[in-house]
From TrEMBL:
The keyword S-adenosyl-L-methionine applies. PANTHER family: ANAEROBIC RIBONUCLEOSIDE-TRIPHOSPHATE REDUCTASE-ACTIVATING PROTEIN, PYRUVATE FORMATE-LYASE-ACTIVATING ENZYME. InterPro entries: Aldolase_TIM, NrdG, Organic_radical-activating, rSAM, rSAM_sf. This is 4Fe-4S cluster-binding domain-containing protein. It comes from Micromonospora zingiberis.
Length: 213
């Protein structure tokens, strides 16, 4: 995990937001508000979101404004996805801490391993420590296209690790195996189709083909 450069430090006051979804049941336990951030330095081969790799693009939003939007959504909690949340950990830690302080849960996906995050904290990365401190459920590890996980919900590959960082989800780890994945398809008034969650590609193609008929 590399040190943030000057541009990243300048940007630390804002979140680079790629997508905001007010309510979903496909991105973690219960009903959650999901935030996809723009930018990922990890770049796993086979990543489903390569359009989120670039650190250019996205919309700059203040942590205060983003936390307000999350709390206004009234869901059980916040899920942070990417892109890579820990590549903009300082600003996201402020969002996550505000959500947590309001009594909502925080789930954070990362392509970094638990060991890489621990090493960053040991090296003095307060931003990484702060985002971990505000996270209840961490999903850690890069996507590995040759190890697709069809047994646990929300994750892409079997190497990815669920880590409970608080006592907010007792029993969750025991319930994961065999839990179904969900995919959500939204069609807005203009006919634009948006998808989130996780489904096997053949099933997703079939579903989308049916919608276009
Ligand atoms: S960490 Fe996530 S967003 Fe980044 S390349 Fe890997 S799968 Fe894609």
């Amino acid at each position: 995990m590399s040190e943030p450069g000057p541009a990243a430090r300048r940007a630390a006051e804002t979140v680079s937001l790629a997508r905001f979804l007010a309510a979903t049941r496909a991105e973690g336990p219960g009903e959650r508000t999901a935030i996809w951030v723009q930018g990922c330095a990890i770049r796993c081969p086979g990543c489903f979101n390569p359009q989120l790799w670039s650190f250019r693009g996205g919309t700059r939003v203040s942590p205060v404004e983003l936390a307000r939007r999350v709390l206004d959504a009234g869901t059980d909690g916040l899920t942070l996805l990417g892109g890579e949340p820990f590549d903009q950990a300082a600003a996201l830690a402020r969002v996550a801490a505000a959500v947590s302080a309001a009594g909502r849960s925080v789930m954070t996906f990362t392509g970094y391993t638990r060991a890489q995050l621990a090493a960053a904290v040991d090296a003095g990365r307060d931003d990484v420590a702060a985002l971990l401190a505000a996270t209840d459920l961490l999903v850690a590890g890069p996507f590995q296209a040759d190890r697709i996980d069809t047994n646990r919900p929300w994750v892409g590959s079997t190497n990815q690790e669920f880590v409970l960082l608080s006592d907010r989800f007792p029993g969750l780890l025991d319930e994961l195996s065999g839990s179904p994945d969900r995919v959500e398809v939204t069609v807005d008034r203009a006919g634009r189709i948006a998808v989130n969650g996780w489904a096997e590609l053949d099933a997703l193609d079939e579903l989308l083909a049916g919608l276009r008929r």
